[in-house]
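ok posting inputs for the fructose -6-phosphate job
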Amino acid sequence: MEVVPLGSAGQIAAVAAGIVEAVVRRKPAAVLGLATGSTPLPTYRELLGRHKAALGPSYAAVTCFNLDEYVGLPVGHQQSYRATIARELTDGLGIGADRVHGPNPSSDDLPIAGECYEALIAAAGGIDVQVLGIGSDGHLAFNEPGSSLASRTRIKTLTAQTREDNARFFGSLDEVPTHVLTQGLGTILEARHLLLIATGETKADATAAAVEGPVSASCPASVLQLHPHVTVLLDPAAASSLDRLAHYREVYCAKPAWQGF
Ligand code: F6R
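and the output
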């Protein structure tokens, strides 16, 4: 796991966008895994800015898979993750809706919607780079504490904490769905490169538990320690509870230019 303490959310956005672009340059038909929430937005804006300035790669052959989706919102709801990703990133990059997939909460057969989604990911050849945020309780995607480290895409119930955290996107807490379809932790571990971004003080303890704590279902994001290729980009506030912060800084400062991410 490469932990990279950076100076600001803006610096994170530049590095994260560079990582995503490098994957697409290397593999024009890359498969991108996309998270929603506030954390990746600066990165998505950076990607859009570079694309509009014709500095980015072509996304003409790229396919995307969303990490998760609310269950129970009307189709096309502005806070559905499908609508959010289209609005915040993929429309602007020219990636058509037919190439942006998400777990289907309107499926007639909701219990097997997860299985169907996994089959779609597999048929696309798997995810090349998966963008991830972390919950203040250590959740990864919507795998809340206690989720199996081997879990697959399925329906989960959000914790009260996560519903409160996400109420800012809705008119009131009551409007936040109680259920979601989320990639499982075992599913996420199959992506080739995991890119976790954490910003702000509310993420400091969860980040420290994920990076330096024991691997445990009590902190679902700690499952990242089992993956061979993880990059963790942190702003100073999110990095503030790490015991080995000085070491991560030394490693990043001494990072050879040829190494990449
Ligand atoms: C979003 C997702 C969640 C968020 C997490 C952090 O697709 O799966 O795990 O990454 O809740 O959300 P923000 O970034 O809003 O703090």
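notes: The longest strand covers residues 193-198. The chain has eight helices and ten strands.
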